[in-house]
Design a protein that fits this description.
Elements (H helix, E strand, L loop, with lengths): L4 H6 L3 H22 L3 E10 L5 E12 L3 E3 L5 H6 L2 H23 L5 E5 L10 H11 L7 E6 H5 L2 H13 L3 E7 L5 H7 L4 E4 L1 H4 L6 H17 L2 E4 L5 H9 L4 E2 L10 H10 L3
Parallel strand pairs: 2-4, 4-5, 5-6, 6-7, 7-8, 8-9
Antiparallel strand pairs: 1-2, 1-9, 2-3
Helix pairs in contact: 5-7
Bound molecules: ligand C2E and calcium ion (CA) (3 copies).
């Protein structure tokens, strides 16, 4: 027999109560953080594996909390998504990425692209493509400097709407990357349907690569597939020289990971650009 509504709610669960309170507090803090400009971007280089040249940066949001210090995105993006505050954070991230992209384009002859992560919540808006282009135009940023990273789960909710939006963005000159490739259920079907330029091999494939022949076989297949489809491959989470060697042997052209650099602030990223072989 189902417990009655009253009975279910009569049970007081202190742990659940504490969690709810913590979430409310976090939500309030997130709103305040937006008002007080406490978000900032860190940049992780994406390099050409053959010569370690920096071809771009992935922009990764951080929260500079007055007491808690630098808060990583995993601690606040999920709640920001639940409360839709992610839309405002997303606009901040895009604006900031655009201003940085332009600064570097003025300074460096072969400017790096900046990769911006899009949340699934941003796709719920049927004017997502228009809003994004408008924002980028306001910053006078050429769309060719921005690469949009999209995960499979981000386009899952309304695939048709996401497809229409991404086709518009692609037509406007944005590059598109399929993020965390291989971790979802329909990677191949989305790769086939959507106008992705890049495939980012998830770090869960890179880590076991050196000891598991099965993983090496899968990564090889992804790289060959990308070649045939004329897409660039970026391996995520390259942490050791061994990871790098194996990926190079398998023909992977681009990569990202702690071996090259952790995500760093804008001025450190700029310093790396001045030292990167062009
Ligand atoms: P992601 O898009 O898959 O980003 C890559 C994550 O892997 C980053 O974590 C990065 O610091 C980390 N990483 C890079 N190289 C290595 C490595 O060699 N080893 C290991 N173990 N990790 C590495 P981060 O910055 O904590 O971001 C976590 C996730 O938060 C991102 O995963 C992305 O899903 C989300 N995120 C970050 N910034 C944004 C944003 O501006 N908007 C949205 N919607 N999501 C964001
Ligand atoms: Ca990403
Ligand atoms: Ca990723
Ligand atoms: Ca991820």
């Amino acid at each position: 027999r189902q417990p009655s509504r009253e009975r279910r709610f009569a049970v007081f669960d202190p742990a659940m109560h504490a969690r709810a309170l913590a979430e409310m507090e976090l939500e309030r803090d997130l709103r305040r953080a937006l008002e007080r400009n406490e978000f900032l971007l860190y940049y992780q280089p994406i390099v050409s594996l053959a010569d370690a040249r920096i071809t771009g940066f992935e922009a990764l949001v951080r929260w500079q909390h007055p007491e808690r210090g630098l808060v990583p995105p995993d601690h606040f993006i999920p709640l920001a998504e639940d409360t839709m505050l992610i839309l405002e954070i997303g606009r901040f991230v895009m604006g900031e990425a655009c201003s940085q992209a332009i600064k570097w384009a003025e300074r460096f002859p072969n400017p790096p692209k900046i990769n911006v992560n899009l949340s699934g919540r941003q796709f719920v808006n049927s004017r997502m493509a228009e809003d994004t282009s408008e924002l980028v135009r306001q910053f006078a940023c050429p769309t060719s400097l921005i690469n949009l990273e999209i995960t499979e789960s981000a386009i899952l909710t309304d695939t048709d709407q996401a497809l229409a939006g991404l086709e518009k963005l692609h037509a406007q000159g944005f590059e598109l990357s399929m993020d965390d490739f291989g971790t979802g259920y329909s990677s191949l079907s989305y790769l086939h349907q959507f106008p992705f330029d890049n495939i980012k091999i998830d770090r869960s494939f890179v880590e076991p690569l050196v000891r598991e022949p099965r993983t090496a076989a899968i990564v090889t297949a992804i790289i060959r597939l990308a070649e045939i489809l004329n897409k660039k491959v970026v391996a995520e989470g390259i942490e050791t020289p061994e990871h790098l060697t194996v990926l190079q042997q398998l023909g992977c052209t681009y990569g990202q990971g702690y071996l090259f650099s952790r995500p760093v602030d804008a001025s450190t990223a700029e310093e790396m650009l001045t030292k990167s072989p062009w």
